[in-house]
Each structure stands twice: as structure tokens, then as C-alpha cells.
Amino acid sequence: MSKLAFDYSKWDNIEISDDEADTHPNIDKASWFRMKHRSRVEREETEKMEKTAMEKENKADSEREREIVRLLAEVRSGGDAAEYEDEDALVGELEEVRGRVKDRLDKIDFMEKNKKWNVDNLSHTATDRTILSGKGSSKEDLVGGMMTGTKSNKDGPVGPQSEKAAVNAYADFVDKHEQVLEDYLATTELEDCKKKLHEHGGTLLHEHAQSYILLSCLEDEMNGFPDKMKLASRNSQVLSHVTDLAASLNRHPRDVVLPFFSRIEDPRYRSGFEEAVQDFIAKIQKRAIDKRKEMDAQEPVELSREERLGPGGLDPVEVFETLSESMQEAFEKKDTQMLQVALEAMEPEEAKKHMDACEASGLWVQNNSSEEATVVDDGLA
Fold first, then answer.
1. CA nearest neighbour of 133 among 263, 246, 262, 248
2. Which residues pair with 147 in a beta bridge?
3. Do residues 125 and 172 make contact, with C-beta atoms less than 8 angstroms apart?
4. Would the pLDDT of 371 be above 50?
């Protein structure tokens, strides 16, 4: 098998937001998500501090290593250091210093290879350059509605210049520009939107800005803020129309801000813009409904006691609580051999009593035709 050009194993450790949202129905989902997110952030901060400390120690040891090498050279050449330095002691210290450095480097490498990736650290800005005028520029310079100023290289390597520089782009962008993005989302007048585009066009017309705004619209709709979502949707469409107009004219998006706002004063163009806004709002509302259904489908349905009753009129939940720990573990794992071992450890009368109750509650189903029995998955695990 040929060797792959890229190692995909790093993506085995991705932490997705659904993991943080997976919670018991009796626990507030928002509170659980915030707690899990805070724990993840604290863990990453601890790892970062630990790596920084190890790198600082390695720097100090590297300086000491260079000093020892210099002293050894002087001792072996019969210099002044030969009078007060022990060559064997220096050699021993050199090995010790190099061993410490290697151990720290191995630990840092292990931490990097086993790092958990998530929405906050999956991207990073490799290069960022804004050109005020894109007149005469190639379409290849237009990336996500913004011009990077970097010509494409069809014969060169594809993707970011380095993997480390690529993984944190979105998170870094949001950390740096979140206040500008939130301020723009809350802008009610189109004239003020135009002013903000002149002030912060490089930020608002960036591809990451549109991703952030899209997620904000969905979040507002799901959290019960439809008016806020509709305003953000309109402002999102302003950015989309500006970038679309720029692409059609082969110009930089900032060059067509004024032409866009001039066009939108035309009733015909304004009508098309409003229609696009309503279409975008409808898509956000539909996605919010679908997302709620997905979340609801993941939540276990709690049955009433009457609905849980087995063929003998007993509640499997109540019967399960009366079983020994070994029997409970066998039912949770649906392991009949483990259940048999647990029963053999009991008195025959006690074992029969428990098994009769299990059959009456539906935890245990006897298959008379094959003389086999089945441990029923009744949602107790």
C-alpha cells in the first residue's frame, strides 16, 4: 500500500458539540453545555501552561548544554577551565541535561498527537492580507468573498502553508473581531450598515464573518429570539449581496459597497433584496426545526409506570432495583452467562423468586420453542 501524503489520524480526536449536549433529560441542557465547555477550556489552558513551562525549561537546559560543551572543549584543550572543572562530572551533567530535554520533547510530542480538536481550535489564519482596490485582479484572488492578494499556484502545494497555522483560523478570527460582528448584527438602519462596512469592511466581508453570522442566526432562532434573528438575517444578506456583486464585476468587495447601497434604493432591486432576505429567514427557521427534531430524537422517552408493566403486571424498573448488583450488571450487559453465574451464587428459592419477577416484568423472556431465554433491553442500562 502506498504511503498517504497526509496523516489523517489527528482527526480521530475531534470533540464535537453534540458530545457536550448529550445529557440526561432531567439536567438542563444549556447549563450542562456551559459546564462541559468550561471544563474543556480549562483543560486546554492547563495543557498550554504545562507546554509553555516545559519549553521554558528546555530553553534553559539548552543554554546549559551549550555552556557544558564549551567547557568540555576548553578542558580537553588544556585551557583555564581545566584547573577548576571535572571532565567526568561535565560529561555526566551533559547526558543528564540532554535526557531531560528529550523527555520534555517526547511529552510535548505526545500531547500534540493526542490533542483533542474542537470547534475552537480546528482552524487558524495562515496569512491575512487586505487590498483596498482589486481592480484588474484575477478571479483567483477572490477567496470566500475577500481578496487574499495571493495568486493561486496550480503546480504548488494545495492548502495552508503549515498545518499548525491552519487549525485555529476561525477561532482566532472570532476572538479578535467578535465585538465588531455583534455590533453589526444589531444594526437596525441600512445607512448604519453602510458606515460599518466602510469602517470594518475587511472584517465583515471575510468568509469567517459570514460563517459566524449564519451560526448566530440559527442560535437566535432556536433560543426564541425571532426578531433578533430576522435583523441579523437581513444584515447577513447585505454582506452576501455585496460579495455577489463584487464577484460579478470582478472587483474587490469593498469597491462595490457604495454601488450596492445605491442600487438598493431602486424599488426593483430592493424588492429582490427583500425576497432574498425572506428566503434566507425561511431556511434558518426550517433548519432550526430540523435541529430541534434531531435533538429531541436523541433524548430518551420516559414511559409511565402503566406503560412499563410487563406481562405479569410488574414494573421492570422496580424489579430491577430489587436485584443484586451482579444480576443488575448482567442485565445491563445483556450477558446470560454472567446472569447464570449470579443465580448459581444464590439459594435456589431466592434465585427462582428473582427470575419469576423478571419474567413477570418482561426483563426476562423465555423462548419455549428453542428452550432459550433472552435478556430484554428495557432501556435500564
1. 246
2. 142
3. yes
4. no
Cell (9 digits) for 264 = 438598493
Q: How far apart are the first and last CA of the chain?
A: 42
Strands (E), the chain: 142-143, 146-147, 364-367, 372-375
Distance CA 5, CA 165 (A): 18
d(CA 247, CA 253): 8
Quick one: how many helices (H) and strands (E) in the chain? 15, 4
172 and 232 assigned to the same domain: yes
Q: Which of 22-31, 123-132, 212-221, 368-377 has the lowest mean pLDDT?
A: 368-377
Locus of grid cell 422517552: 301
Average pLDDT of the segment spanning 79-92: 81
Residues in a beta bridge with 375: 364
Of 21 and 319, more confident: 319
In this structure, what C-alpha cell is assigned to residue 70?
Answer: 564549551
For residues 240 and 181, give the distance between their C-alpha atoms in angstroms, rounded to a whole number.
Answer: 15
Query: Do 181 and 32 belong together in one domain?
Result: no
Q: What is the pTM of this model?
A: 0.41
Q: Give the separation between CA 194 and CA 198, rounded to whole angstroms.
A: 6
Q: Out of 298, 328, 361, pick the residue that ends a domain.
A: 298
The residue written with cell numbers 505526545 in the block is 110
Instruction: Tell me if 316 is assigned to some domain.
Output: yes
Q: Is 224 left (phi over 0), alpha (psi -120 to 50) or beta?
A: left
User: What pLDDT shows up at residue 192?
Assistant: 92
Tens digit of each residue's pLDDT (9 = 90 or more) over 195-204: 999 888 888 9
Q: Indicate whether 280 and 309 sit together in one domain.
A: no
Q: Tell me whether residue 286 is exposed, middle or buried, using C-beta atoms within 10 angstroms of its C-beta: 0 to 12, 13 to 18, 19 or more.
A: exposed
Q: What is the pLDDT of residues 293-306, one digit of tens each?
A: 887 776 566 667 77
- Residue 319 burial class via C-beta count within 10 angstroms: exposed 0-12, middle 13-18, buried 19 and up: buried
